[in-house]
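Title: Comparing notes on inverse folding

I've been comparing how different people in this forum approach sequence design from structure. To keep things fair, I'm posting one structure and asking everyone to reply with a full sequence. Here's the target:
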């Protein structure tokens, strides 16, 4: 038995949402065309359902969602998962008034055996009104899902720390 819980968030005004789904298409990268957004006031939420025939933890079990431009959402998996039946759901949330939000995108790669890395933000944030969304992609193979999960946290107003147990992860 699996219990699933979720939240539905509704804004009365000031937010625009684009959403859709994509299926794995024989490549490790799917580019989705969007109506133009301001990338400094937009962020992505993504979900995925892995290949139902997979028996081990693989490269399509962690999926990265990234706004690569104002009109493109990139969905990425690892090379092992290039062909399969994985499905991806996505939502791009844009605040209509850029003064209401400041989205900063950072990236880091943790190599094998690395447990922690820190990344500086381009401008300091207010810790009381800031949250982190992560979108990791991991080296495939094996069943050690716990060793591939990450935790991200704000160390201070200017630094994000990412932690993992010991495999290469691109976030």
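Reply #1:
Here's my take.
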């Amino acid at each position: 038995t699996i219990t699933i819980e979720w939240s539905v968030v509704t804004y009365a005004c000031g937010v625009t949402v684009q959403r859709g789904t994509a299926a794995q298409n024989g490549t490790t990268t799917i580019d989705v065309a969007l109506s133009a957004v301001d990338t400094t006031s937009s962020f992505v939420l993504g979900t995925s359902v892995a290949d139902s025939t997979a028996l081990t933890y693989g490269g399509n079990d962690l999926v990265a969602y990234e706004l690569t431009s104002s009109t493109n959402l990139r969905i990425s998996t690892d090379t092992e998962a290039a062909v399969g039946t994985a499905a991806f759901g996505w939502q791009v949330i844009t605040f209509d008034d850029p003064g209401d939000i400041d989205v900063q995108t950072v990236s880091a790669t943790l190599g094998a055996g690395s447990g922690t890395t820190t990344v500086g933000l381009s401008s300091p944030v207010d810790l009381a009104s800031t949250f982190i969304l992560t979108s990791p992609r991991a080296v495939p193979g094996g069943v050690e899902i716990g060793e591939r999960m990450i935790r991200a946290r704000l160390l201070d107003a200017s630094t994000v720390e990412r932690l993992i147990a010991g495999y290469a992860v691109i976030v």
